[in-house]
């Protein structure tokens, strides 16, 4: 395993296992198999509805808790101080742990400054080992970095061969924020698993296009969290530590950047933003209630 040292000294694996869209009744099995394969970073979120499955798999794994890095995220409906603070405690309970290694704000929506302050307090209390952001693009990232007491350790954004996010990466580097990719396989779009450039590079190393994509992103300093519900694919995705891409391969990888490739989840689309904010409005109208 390769690691990145976050801005507070905490070590985070460069390769993890994501459980986005993994059904709750499948999560325990999937995470158990991922841990058996060798993954030590597990990425979940309140909105995924499967924190309990992650916690159960970790508890039954027999692996010491301090060897597993758990990430979760605070959802839009909990974006103020009070709800965020309560949701952190509920995530701890569902995960069956006394600390979460990394907690992120899932979206730059609602009262995210208040929610971030709740994470800062939980961090100081030892409930969270590191805190950060998800889907905060440069203008919002700069806002938080300049105003927060605890600088975010991580920012997780859509990143894959067709949207490599070099500009956003440079801003993160400026503030010492680690870049983490969600959707490193572009959700399987654009023929990524048969892409000629990736396949051509892979032939040199005996690797698949998917393995080349992960290796290239990691060499650019990006943490990756591929998802699969199949153990053999989990193993293939993990098998990226025995080779390194040459400079000319990285230059070829850079040519895959495609400004015309549609965003997987468009945070600049008013309809998308309105849908997510609708959840926040409903939560406020209900006056709290169930956290998520």
From TrEMBL:
Molecular function via GO: oxidoreductase activity, acting on the CH-OH group of donors, NAD or NADP as acceptor
Chain positions recorded as substrate binding sites = 106
User: InterPro entries per the record?
Assistant: AKR, Aldo/ket_reductase_CS, NAD(P)_OxRdtase_dom_sf, NADP_OxRdtase_dom
**PROSITE patterns in the cross-refs:** ALDOKETO_REDUCTASE_1, ALDOKETO_REDUCTASE_3
Is NADP given among the entry's keywords? yes
Sorted keywords for this record are:
NADP, Oxidoreductase
Q: Name one Pfam family in it.
A: Aldo_ket_red
Domain NADP-dependent oxidoreductase, first and last residues per copy: 21-255
Is Iron-sulfur one of the keywords?
A: no
Q: Which Gene3D superfamilies match?
A: NADP-dependent oxidoreductase domain
- Provide the family line: Belongs to the aldo/keto reductase family.
Q: What is this protein called?
A: Aldo/keto reductase
């Amino acid at each position: 395993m390769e690691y990145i040292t976050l801005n507070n000294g905490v070590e985070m694996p460069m390769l993890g296992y994501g459980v986005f869209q993994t059904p709750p009744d499948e999560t325990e099995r999937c995470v158990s198999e991922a841990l058996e394969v060798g993954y030590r970073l597990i990425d979940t979120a309140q909105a995924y509805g499967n924190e309990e499955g992650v916690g159960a798999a970790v508890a039954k794994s027999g692996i010491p808790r301090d060897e597993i890095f758990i990430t979760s995220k605070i959802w839009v409906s909990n974006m103020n101080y009070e709800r965020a603070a309560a949701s952190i405690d509920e995530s701890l309970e569902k995960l069956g742990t006394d600390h979460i290694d990394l907690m992120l704000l899932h979206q730059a929506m609602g009262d995210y400054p208040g929610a971030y302050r709740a994470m800062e307090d939980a961090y100081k209390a030892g409930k969270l080992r590191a805190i950060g952001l998800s889907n905060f693009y440069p203008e919002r990232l700069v806002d938080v970095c300049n105003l927060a007491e605890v600088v975010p350790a991580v920012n997780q954004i859509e990143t894959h061969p067709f949207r490599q996010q070099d500009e956003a990466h440079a801003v993160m580097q400026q503030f010492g924020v680690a870049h983490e990719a969600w959707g490193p396989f572009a959700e399987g779009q654009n023929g990524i698993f048969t892409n000629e450039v990736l396949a051509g590079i892979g032939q040199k190393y005996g690797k698949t296009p998917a393995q080349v994509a992960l290796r290239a992103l990691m060499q650019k300093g990006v943490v990756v969290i591929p998802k699969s519900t199949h153990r053999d694919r989990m193993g293939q995705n993990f098998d990226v530590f025995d080779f390194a891409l040459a400079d000319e391969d990285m230059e070829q990888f850079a040519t895959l950047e495609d400004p015309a490739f549609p965003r997987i989840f468009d945070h600049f689309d008013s309809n998308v933003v309105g849908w997510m904010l609708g959840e926040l409005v409903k939560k406020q109208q209900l006056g709290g209630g169930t956290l998520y």
